Amino acid sequence: MTSVIFMGTPDFSVPVLEQVIKDGFNVKAVVTQPDRPVGRKRILTPPPVKKAALEHDIPVIQPEKLKGSQELADIIGLQPDLIITAAFGQLLPNELLEAPPLGCINVHASLLPELRGGAPIHHAIIRGYKETGITIMYMAEKLDAGDMISQKSVEITDADHVGTLHDKLSAAGAALLSETLPLIVEGKAERVPQDHEKATFAWNIKREEELIDWNRSGREIFNQIRGLYPWPVAYTVFRDKTMKVLRAELVKGNGEPGEVIAVSAESITFASGNEEAILVTELQPSGKKKMSAADFLRGSEVKIGEKAGKDE
Q1: Which of 53, 106, 243, 290 holds its CA 20 to 30 A away from the CA of 15?
Q2: Taking the CB of residue 60, how many other CB atoms lie within 10 A of it?
Q3: 279 near 249, Cβ under 8 Å?
Q4: What is the 3-state secondary structure (H, E, C) of the chain?
Q5: How far separated are the first and last CA of the chain, in Å rounded?
Q6: What pTM, to 2 d.p., does this model score?
């Protein structure tokens, strides 16, 4: 039986791990990030992959940093045939990449060489892509630059946000890995070098990328809002306070950028930099819980002509 070490951390990794187990591989250990404090009460919380591993009685290794660690020596000492990573969150040291006889492979949430980096799902929506996908690839020392083995496309619709696309890609990743692993084990997997000249990058989202610029087109703002939902979410400044914009629709409408051009019982519509407007249906005012626009409007009258987007 082929033995593997699985390395992953967030929810994205869980269906992939479950598929590897279901396909009958001997998972010797799961490597994931350390438990982290979560929420206002800072409760120490294990990563989703750790929970899944423990449910299957699989040993868990949680290095703060792999390079030069005892955990690295322990992983190599387990002598796996193959290492599989899916959103692990750390680069693998070269000595680990060279250890397993079948190599180290990664389940990456983009159609490489596009969107290398840590936030490919967010950027696929923010940049207005109509499709993205999954790539199974051999890992290399340089980030997401290794030879590709297989790919699968996934459609992006206007109804998608990061949460829905994340789930679609996670399921597609698990299925594609299941199809690809037998080829790797049998030595029949192709190695397709990436065209590095065509590489684009999707670095982790910065705080300044969450601020809505109402001078941009409605489509760009709409893509930004759903490309940051449900995390980390886009925000604007309204009545001199931060207001997170969680859910919105793209509609027609003219006005000064950021101006309130329509108010209904259930929505507030803001003008953009062109003839498209943003109809907001869910938001989170500063210091309050997220709420529907209807609940916000019941407690706070919003008038046409008010403006969002004042600099903090």
Answers
A1: 290
A2: 16
A3: yes
A4: CCEEEEEECCCCHHHHHHHHHHCCCEEEEEECCCCEEECCCCEEECCHHHHHHHHCCCCEECCCCCCCCHHHHHHHHCCCCEEEEECCCCCCCHHHHCCCCCCEEEEECCCCCCCECCCHHHHHHHCCCCEEEEEEEECCCCCCCCCEEEEEEEECCCCCCHHHHHHHHHHHHHHHHHHHHHHHHCCCCCCECCCHHHCCECCCCCHHHHECCCCCCHHHHHHHHHHCCCCCCEEEEECCEEEEEEEEEEEECCCCCCEEEEECCCCEEEECCCCEEEEEEEEEECCCCCEEHHHHHHHCCCCCCCEECCCC
A5: 59
A6: 0.93
Which pair of tokens denotes residue 277? 């407007």
Whether residue 218 contacts residue 209, with contact meaning beta carbons closer than 8 Å, is answered with no
What the block records as the tokens of 143 is: 């980030």
Q: Work out the number of other CB atoms within 10 angstroms of the CB of residue 157.
A: 9
